[in-house]
Amino acid sequence: YDKTVNFINLVSDFDDVDFYLVRNDETIDTAEYDVQNLTFAESADEVLPADYYEVIAVYEDDNGEQILLDRTALHGFVEDKNYIVTVEPADTPTGYEINILP
C-alpha cells in the first residue's frame, strides 16, 4: 500500500529544509524518496510505498554543507494511515526534532 506523507517545516531559522526518507539499505545520497527546499511553514506531500524509513531533516548552509537538524530511528509507514511529519525547534542537542503524527 502507498502512504501519503505530508511534510511541514516549522523551523523559522532556515529558509529551506530537506527531508530524506532513508530505507535500511540507503543513505541520504541514495535515498529514493525526499522532499527538498521547504521554507518556514511550507508543506509538501510525498507518496511512499509502505516500508520502514529513517526520516532525516537537514539544512544546507551557504557553503553547501549539510547540517543535521534531526533524524529518527526506522519508522514503519505501514499502517492503514496517512502521516504528517514535522521538524520543529526543541530542547534537544541539535535544537530541533522530527515528529511523526499518524
The 3D shape can be described as globular
Order of helices and strands: EEEEEEEEE
Unreliable spans are none
Let me know the average pLDDT.
Answer: 95
Number of helices: 0
Q: Span between N and C termini?
A: 15 Å
Rg value: 13 Å
Strand content: over 45%
Say how many strands there are. Answer: 9
Proportion in helices: under 10%
How does this structure look, described?
The protein has 102 residues and is mostly beta strands. Helix content is 0%, strand content 58%. It has no helices and 9 strands. Strands 2, 3, 5, 6 and 7 form a 5-stranded antiparallel β-sheet that branches. A hairpin with a 5-residue loop joins strand 5 (51-60) and strand 6 (66-71). The protein is globular. The two termini are 15 Å apart.
